[in-house]
Write a structure and sequence with these properties.
By secondary structure, this protein is of the alpha/beta class. It is built from ten helices and ten strands. It has one domain: Metal-dependent hydrolases (TIM Barrel, Alpha-Beta Barrel). Helix 7 packs across helix 9. The N and C termini lie close together (9 Å).
């Protein structure tokens, strides 16, 4: 067992319940709250509260909100929702795909110190503490020139080392947006290994963007959790394809190292505001309503489902806490 900070305060890891591993209250860009006319705050609060309640109605007790500052994290939104929900919501520190320029002058230890402050002291002076570190490696990782010091790859690798050091210091896990078709989980785990991180505290996310089970089993054998956390379509072929990845990993004996989610937001601003409230509020129900029934109909057990929605997430928090002696 370990203590996990939620937006409503600390709980024991045994109280997390069934958790979606990769979601967002909102998204967009850092500082978007200062763009006049962009945010409808009351609508955002209502949508997030309603989405949590709909998720709870289908057996989901909480979410990991993996939105760092530069992706549009809104602390006021956490504070407002915390007053209106009993769900377990975990907030994140970390960095998204395009490392912001204010990181460029910091070395890995200075970036780690920033992550640590948001974990230990609270985010933006609030009582909301980050309890997970988010990294995002995507097509930018291909951009590299050894002659240039601040290439996207160099900065992404620097932030990965920072995340590992902050995780070891604070006892919180790391979750990673990755481009699965480029197998970016492998170089991430190599860096974490080099930093002496317990890979059981790491989730390699967006892994159901590939059907390459050999790649995914390779990550799992190293001890990491695989996040099958992109699920946003009700088409039968899509459901079978995405759920089939989960089933293949269950059949390989890895249910306890698989987590599920949507990568969805009921109040997101990236792209455009979703006009249909019902569509937005259903963002966190498709795993329960579509994927889980498919898995059960095709050979998975209730114990497998519980391992993916409850056991795997809890294990990442407890492994991270153990590294820090907590």
């Amino acid at each position: 067992m370990s203590i996990v900070q939620t937006i409503r305060g600390p709980i024991d890891s045994s109280e997390l319940g069934r958790v979606l591993s990769h979601e967002h209250f909102t998204n967009g860009m850092g500082g978007m709250e200062h763009v006049v006319g962009l945010l409808d705050r009351e609508a955002m609060i209502t949508r997030c509260v309603n989405a949590l309640e709909r998720a709870k109605a289908v057996g989901i007790d909480g979410i990991l909100d993996v939105t760092p500052n530069d992706l549009g994290r809104q602390v006021w939104l956490f504070e407002a929702v915390a007053e209106r929900t009993t769900s377990n919501v975990i907030a994140a520190t970390g960095v998204y795909r395009w490392v912001p320029p204010y990181f460029f002058g910091w070395d890995a230890d200075e970036i780690a110190a920033y992550f640590i402050r948001e974990i230990e002291d609270g985010i933006e002076g609030s009582n909301v503490h980050a309890a997970i570190i988010k990294l995002a490696w995507d097509i930018e990782y291909q951009l590299n020139d050894p002659a240039i010091r601040l290439t996207p790859r160099a900065m992404l690798e620097r932030t990965a080392r920072a995340a590992a050091r902050a995780s070891k210091a604070t006892g919180v896990p790391i979750t990673c947006h990755t481009r699965a078709i480029d197998e970016l989980g492998t170089p991430l785990l190599d860096i974490f290994d080099d930093e002496g991180l317990d890979l059981r505290a790491v989730t390699i996310g967006h892994s159901n963007d590939t059907q390459d089970l050999d790649y995914l089993r390779g990550l799992l054998r190293r001890g990491a959790t695989v996040g099958l956390d992109r699920f946003g379509n009700g088409d039968a072929e899509y459901i079978a394809q995405r759920s089939g990845v989960a089933l293949g990993l269950i059949q390989s004996g890895f249910a306890g190292q698989v987590s599920l989610g949507h990568d969805a937001s009921p109040a997101g601003l990236w792209g455009r505001w979703i006009e249909d409230d019902a569509v937005a509020e259903a963002a966190w129900t498709r795993v329960s309503n579509l994927e889980v029934p498919w898995l059960l109909a095709n050979g998975a057990t209730e114990a497998d489902i519980d391992s993916m929605l409850r056991g795997s997430i809890r294990a990442t928090f407890e492994a991270a806490a153990a590294m820090a002696g907590k």
